Each structure stands twice: as C-alpha cells, then as structure tokens.
Amino acid sequence: MLFLAADHAGYEMKEFIRHKLATRNVAFEDFGTFSDEPVDYPGYAHKVARAVVKHKGRGILFCGSGQGMAIAANRHKGARASVVWSKEIAQETREDNDANILSLPARFIDQETAWEIVSAFLSTTFSHEDRHKRRINQLEP
After folding, report:
1. Of 50, 73, 85, 120, which alpha carbon lies 20 to 30 A from 57's?
2. What is the pLDDT of residue 34?
C-alpha cells in the first residue's frame, strides 16, 4: 500500500501526483492536507511513517524543501525517508537504502519532475546486496 501526505507547501504537488496515481489504478491512502491553508508538517509525516512501518508499505511526503517531512518520518523505527530531487536519486535510494518513504521538495522541483521521481521510486526494488543489508541494519540504534 502507498500512503501520501503533504503540508500546505506540498499540497498542489500532492494533488497532481494523486491524480496521476489514480488514473493508473495505483492504490493509495491520502492523509492530507486537503487544502493550501497553512498547517504544521510533523503530524502528517508521522501518520505516513506509522502507516508505512505498520503495513510494510511505501509513502510519499510533500513539503517545501522535503527536509522537514523526512526528518519527522525518520524518527520512526523502520522508516527510511529520503529527500529526492531526481529520478536517479530515487532509484539509488531504493536500490541501496531500501528507502520506503519518498520526500519531495515541492518548492524546488516541477510537477513533471516529481512524477518522474515517483515513477522511479515505485518501480525500483531494493538490491538485497549483503553490503546494503548490513548498512541498513546499522541505521537502527
């Protein structure tokens, strides 16, 4: 399952991606926000991180820089959120880090680039190489 959330700065991009996912019959749950009215991002990131970990799914977060959402999501054991600004970075963070949450910087990339990133994130699998598994295991305290 895929889980989405945005703050006000990422709302428009989330809606664009949400529409793209729906037209491709990708199942997702949208935790909000549902307007561009100012909100605090941590609560949205926490909802997605909890759902991703609980359901062993993936998440996509949208905020101005992507950083705040990623910082909040990464506070959850088992969440591996990456701020991504290109499809190449999306592929690498999936292959090497088994990232399960994508955090997009809505103020710094356009919607078409965001879609390329999301597509790469969703279509790339973890490499399962021993060195990458070993490093991921070292992330948890």
Report:
1. 85
2. 97
